[in-house]
Amino acid sequence: MIFTVVVHASPCQNAAPESALRFCKALLSAGHTLHRVFFYRDGVFNGNQLISSPPDELNTMRAWQALAEEHSIDLVICIAAAIRRGVLDSTEAKRYEQNQTNLAEKFNLSGLGQLVEACILSDRVITFGGQG
Amino acid sequence: MNAPKNILLMSRRAPYGSSAARDLLDIALTCSVFEQSVALLLLDDGVLQLLTNQDPQVIQQKNLNSLQSSLSLYDIEQIYVDADALTHHGIRHSELHLPVTLLNKVEISQLIANSDVVLTV
């Protein structure tokens, strides 16, 4: 089965991203396909490269990177949500005249179309950190 | 090309207290651009999003009603409201900004069950 996982919450304050990570690992180990992880709303903070966790705590951003590395997972961050919250790659930093960037490697900024496309192509879409 | 999916977008959040209402509408408009069948379901405090005559300029917010008015231009006309939530908030059907369908709890369950994708904000 093809899954897409949607993450709406930031790490540290909310357990939803860690639950999402465990869910992704579980579905992959069960032989399913993970089409994409889409980060929306405060979920975009998962891609903040500057997150500096204490060494004895899980760094969720690095855990996503490791997952993407191991399984070639598409980690997409909503570009509009990210720009509002100050998670920028070099292209957007230039566009908004900022002299810093902080988008972690393995994450890509793209539009909500990537969420809808994932809904079209996936058998299951699971949201973590939604309030509905 | 895949057949269009029935995508249900759900929200239970009041307007302006968070970005939920706007974030939901942004997904809805994008679904429409991709020619998917999209429905909105507002539950609990989410029904307040549809109150007419909102005046959020005094708190430096953009008026949701104008964005809601554009939904029909995107062929988004399936807007469902939890009838119990309206009663709970003492809101009359006529006080809503858009034409909506009121649903009871059983009908809400059926709507969710009949949707291909359910996204919550």
From TrEMBL, chain A:
Its domain of life reads Bacteria
What GO molecular function annotations does the UniProt record carry, in alphabetical order? sulfur carrier activity; sulfurtransferase activity
Pfam families according to UniProt:
DsrE
Q: Which GO terms describe its cellular component?
A: sulfurtransferase complex
What family classification does the UniProt entry report for this protein?
Belongs to the DsrE/TusD family.
PANTHER family, A to Z: PROTEIN YCHN, SULFURTRANSFERASE TUSD
Q: What is this protein called?
A: Putative sulfurtransferase DsrE
Q: What is the lineage of its organism?
A: Bacteria, Pseudomonadati, Pseudomonadota, Gammaproteobacteria, Oceanospirillales
